[in-house]
Each structure stands twice: as structure tokens, then as C-alpha cells.
Amino acid sequence: MNQKVAIITGGSRGIGRSIAIALARHGVDSILTYQSRQADANNVVAEVEKLGRKAVTLPLDVAYTASFIAFRTEVTAVLQQHWQRPTFDFLVNNAGQGIHKSFADTSEADFDLMMNMHLKGVFFLTQTLLPLIADHGRIVNISSGLTRFALPGYAAYATMKGAVETLTKYLAKELGPRGIAVNVVAPGALATDFGGGAVRDNKELNAYVASQTALGRVGRPDDLGGVVASLLSDDNRWINAQRIEASGGMFL
Predict the structure, then answer these.
(1) Would residue 145 count as lying in a domain?
(2) Fewer beta carbons under 10 A from the terminal one: N or C of the chain?
(3) Is residue 83 situated within a structural domain?
């Protein structure tokens, strides 16, 4: 039986790092992409290796679709070199960044960045890697609680995530004949450097989010890794085309 392998975009920190470590605990190896933080990505590799699993890093800008064919070639070589197989099992579309601007102040450049990174990138990276995804594999797209509730300043970002949630249903429908399940995991507000680290560093905002969360605190990246790892386990193989929010119960 082939060793299970996942590709995690944006695997050098935050949610991506948490997913890689949680998957390692579940016996899954990883190919982690990073845009600029190679040292951070290498640190995640070291953490995975301490758990007895294997991880490899590759650079990737998910907003630059012209690089995707070359990336697929690199993935093919890495799979053969490290796992002696032509396919991988799990794709986690996680990479991205946010902006916080009102609808009125969002520029076309802001919009295009969010679209290229969070929607066009997810669409065409998944399409490009499709020949390498093993039959009966899985895809998880990371979305946001902001597609269910609206907070001023996130119109462009949340619009793209809402589109990804619709894309997820179409992927599940079209890839179903290959036995590939496709789901969404939607985090709530997290104490990370996302969006400039506001939720983590602004005490008033942190306290407000905690007060609006049923479990009484702001989320942490490590709250998400296990959710994705569980969703990719055999126990959850029958879950398909679903949006699973992992927010601790925000704005109920």
C-alpha cells in the first residue's frame, strides 16, 4: 500500500503548519508549499520529521497561474524521488492572505489580488494537479467564517471564499466518478498574523471575538489542523461537498 501523501499550500506557518503536523500524527507525509518563508517551511519539515513522518518543501505563488505547469513537473519529480509513486492523495488549498478594507476603499488591484490568490489560483492549481491526484483521494479547500457572517472590511476576501465554496460543490460532482471527495473547512477568527495580526494583537478585537464565540476564546491555528486531518481520514470518507465551519461557535 502506498504511503499517503498530502500537498498543503501555504504550509510554512499558521493553519498550513498546523495541518502538516496533524497529518503527520495521522501517519500522512506532506509536500509543503511556501511563497517566501523557506526557513519557516524548513522548520515545519523538522517538526514533521520528529513525528516520524516525511515532508518536502517547494516554492509556489498561488496567485501566479503561469507557474503551475512547472510546479506540477516539480511535484512529479518529488513524488518519484521520495515516495516512488506517480500520484499523491490529498490536496489542501490553504495558501493566501487577507486584506481589511471597506467596500468603498477596495481598489481594483486589491480585488485582483484576492481573486488571483483565493479563487483563480485554487481553480487552476487544482485543475493542473488533477492528473496527479490518486483516485479515491480528497481535496479540502480552506474558506472562512466570513462567508456565513459579514464583518465590514472583508468584502473582497469573503467574496472569493464564497466562490470557492460553490466551486467545491462542482468539484465534488465532477470528480465523484473517480471517488474523489471535496469539502470546505471554514475557520473563524484566529490569533495569527493573518490580516496584519489584528485578532491576535488588538486586545479589544480579541476580547470582542472571544465574547461572540460560544467556547469563549479566539481560535488558534492548532484548532484547525486536527479538523482537516480528521476530514481526510478513512473514518470520514463518506463526507462530501460539505462546508464544515471550525469557529468555536462564532455569532450563533
Answers:
(1) yes
(2) N
(3) yes
Residue 251 lies in a domain: no
Parts of the chain with a pLDDT under 70: 191-202
pLDDT for 225: 95
Residue 103 structural domain: 5-246
Q: In what order do the strands lie in the sheet with 5-8?
A: 55-59, 29-34, 5-8, 88-93, 133-142, 181-187, 243-246
Q: Which residue has the cell 464564497?
A: 162
Question: Is 157 an annotated catalytic residue?
Answer: yes
Q: Number of folded domains in the chain? A: 1
Assess contact for 219 and 187: CB atoms under 8 A: yes
pLDDT at residue 204, rounded to an integer:
76
Given 34, 157, 170, 208, the catalytic residue? 157
pLDDT at 164: 98
Residues near 233 by beta carbon (within 8 Å), at least 6 away in sequence: 26
pTM for the whole thing? 0.95
Check which CATH number belongs to the domain holding 113 and give it.
Answer: 3.40.50.720
